[in-house]
Each structure stands twice: as structure tokens, then as C-alpha cells.
Write a structure and sequence with these properties.
Largest sheet: 5 strands, parallel
Number of helices: 16
Shape: globular
Structural class: alpha/beta
Radius of gyration: 24 Å
Number of domains: 3
Order of helices and strands: HEHEHEHEHEHHHHHHHHHHH
Strand content: 5-15%
Number of strands: 5
Distance between the termini: 59 Å
Strand order of the largest sheet: 2-3-4-1-5
CATH topology of the largest domain: Rossmann fold
Helix content: 55-70%
Length: 343
């Protein structure tokens, strides 16, 4: 069976038609958890067993698979955050052999919420890919990608309405961008805002007061100031970043990521490529606003200056990691150098 769609799996579960093996993963962690918990709830939970990746006992897991449910229709086994890269080659082989013989009365759910099976790359890591490929052939596989900004904004609007509040689309999208499209974070922040609004409209001022700036979000504003050669604003924003107790290495990493976005956008513009081309080529699905903003903000800087900025950030990172030094001062010096216009 090839990878399945979320809605198709949901319909099948609602009808009471269960498969024996599932693997749910992806950047949309909230959807992964939601579908997993819904599947468990639709079976008789009295036959439920849970394993976690950090203390996974493959022998015990194998024994549970073969157990016959005594007081339930199904023997349901959920395995959260099993990172196959932590298994030996023999244990992985044994696991896959075990999964070849699942009784009709057993339902197994692997679901990933605590790590990235792709390790930030385009494809899953080798050992995790073996499990994913196996489930793709013998069970139900679903990768849950991040929703678009507009989809997440609509989710916020509907959630607010259910809690007796209102919010306009612009403010809903503001929450999405502050939460960096993280659906779990969006849900928590929306619930908090609804509780504070107490049946009234959720305003921009409420969002500013209650929704914390994430590092990447604050650093994006810092990068915008650098791209505009606005040193004063850049240093004020950098001070804000450090006041949030962020370390210099994390700041430089986030800043480098934003300038890579700028560089990709600038390169695309120079060769006639579109935002959609960049989204597709570099897997920005669910974070389309990052590309849109990069196309807008990269125009004041030349490709050569963007390359220079990335070199400055790389040098600063190497210095901090290689020597005992004032890491904040090194970061400030890097920002100053980046705002110097080319002659």
C-alpha cells in the first residue's frame, strides 16, 4: 500500500475498518497526535499498550503482538518516537520480521512526535526508511506535512468561534507566523488567547502581549533590518534576542538560516524563477510565507553581499566554537559588518 492521505485514513477509521499496521509522522505534530489518539479511541482502549522509543524493549513488544485480547476486540499497541537509528542492525531486522506476522486482532501504531525522521533532509534516515518502506508495503503510512498559513489561520478562526471568541484573518495569520506554523504551538496559544479574551474579539494588542516571539521570528526581523542596512534597528533587535536568554550559537544558526532563505530568493529572481519554484525545490511546503518574505526582503542586497553575509556568519560561528571569547560581542561585530554597504 502506498502512502495514504489523512482524510482517507480518518474515514476508514470512522467506519470501524482498521488495518493492522500504521506509521504516522511529519512536521504537523498536532495532526500526528490527533489521528493517533482518534484511532486508539475507536478501538477498545482496555486492550491498549504503549511503548516509547527511549526504553523500547523489542522482546516485550514482540510478546504483546502475539497476545490475544481477553476483554477487548483488538490488542492495540502504540509506539511513540521509535528512532530506528538507535537500534542495532540485528534488532531492526528482528523488528521487521516480527511485523510480518501480525495477528488479525492486533493493531500496531508507530507515531513520531519528538524527532525528525528525515533529520532535516529531504528523505528519511537509512534505518527509519527501512521501517517506513516496510509499512508502505504492508500497512498504512501517512506523512503529515505542515498546513499552509491560510489553512492554519482558518483553523484558528474556527477554534476561536468554538470557544465563543472572534478573530479576524489578519490576526490569525499573525499568530501562525509568530508560532512558525507549528500546529501544536498554535493550538496552545489560541486556547490561551481565547481564555484571556473571555468571549470577546482577539485583538492584535492581545497577541503582542501574550504570544511570545520565537527565536526564528525575532531573528527574521533582525535579518530584515540588516537587509535594509539599518544598523541601529538591527542592534536593538539583537539586544532583544539576547534578553530572551538565547545563546550566540543558536542566534547565528537562526540568522544563517534566514540569510540562506534570502540567498535562494535572490538567486531565483536573478534567473527568472518564481516563489513556487523555490517552495518546491527546497521543500518549503507549509512555510510558504518564509519564501514570500524572502522574495520581498532580499531585493536591497546583491548576491555578492548576501554571500559576504553568510561568510561573516560562518566565521563568527567558527570563532565562538573554537576559542574562549565574548560570544555576544562576536555576534554584534558580525551584525555590524553585515550592515556595511558595498562600495
Amino acid at each position: 500500500m502506498a502512502a495514504a492521505q489523512y482524510d482517507d485514513i480518518l474515514k476508514k477509521i470512522k467506519s470501524g475498518n482498521f488495518d493492522r499496521l500504521y506509521y504516522f509522522y511529519g512536521k504537523d505534530i498536532m495532526s500526528v497526535e490527533k489521528l493517533t489518539h482518534f484511532l486508539i479511541s475507536k478501538t477498545d482502549e482496555s486492550g491498549f499498550q504503549k511503548f516509547t522509543g527511549d526504553n523500547f524493549n523489542i522482546s516485550q513488544f514482540s510478546d504483546y503482538i502475539q497476545m490475544f485480547p481477553m476483554s477487548a476486540d483488538y490488542n492495540v499497541i502504540a509506539v511513540n518516537d521509535l528512532n530506528a537509528e538507535n537500534l542495532s542492525a540485528d534488532d531492526l531486522k528482528y523488528l521487521l520480521e516480527t511485523l510480518e506476522y501480525i495477528p488479525e486482532t492486533t493493531v500496531i501504531i508507530f507515531y513520531i512526535t519528538g524527532f525528525d525522521v528525515k533529520s532535516g533532509k529531504k528523505f528519511p534516515s537509512p534505518k527509519n526508511k527501512k521501517i517506513i518502506d516496510f509499512v508502505s508495503k504492508h500497512g498504512v503510512l501517512c506523512e503529515m506535512e505542515l498546513k499552509s498559513v491560510s489553512e492554519l489561520a482558518l483553523m484558528i478562526i474556527k477554534s476561536a468561534e468554538k470557544q465563543g471568541c472572534t478573530i479576524n484573518r489578519r490576526n490569525a495569520e499573525k499568530i501562525v507566523q509568530l508560532c512558525l506554523c507549528n500546529s501544536m504551538m498554535i493550538k496552545n496559544e489560541t486556547d490561551k488567547l481565547c481564555s484571556y479574551a473571555a468571549g470577546n474579539e482577539i485583538t492584535s494588542d492581545m497577541i503582542d502581549a501574550l504570544v511570545p516571539q520565537q527565536l526564528d521570528s525575532t531573528v527574521f526581523n533582525l535579518a530584515k533590518a540588516v537587509a535594509a542596512f539599518n544598523l541601529k534597528k538591527a542592534l536593538i533587535l539583537l539586544d532583544e534576542v539576547f534578553l530572551q536568554q538565547n545563546d550566540a550559537v543558536s542566534v547565528l544558526a537562526a540568522l544563517s538560516g534566514t540569510f540562506i532563505d534570502f540567498y535562494r530568493a535572490k538567486a531565483a529572481l536573478s534567473c527568472g524563477k518564481s516563489e513556487n519554484d523555490v517552495i518546491s525545490d527546497f521543500n518549503y511546503k507549509g512555510k510558504e510565507f518564509v519564501v514570500r518574505n524572502a522574495f520581498r526582503d532580499c531585493r536591497r542586497m546583491s548576491e555578492s553581499h548576501l554571500e559576504k553575509c553568510l561568510d561573516i556568519l560562518t566565521d563568527a560561528d567558527k570563532t565562538i566554537k573554537s576559542f574562549s571569547c565574548n560570544s555576544r560581542l562576536i555576534t554584534e561585530q558580525a551584525v555590524v559588518k553585515m550592515t556595511v554597504r558595498e562600495i
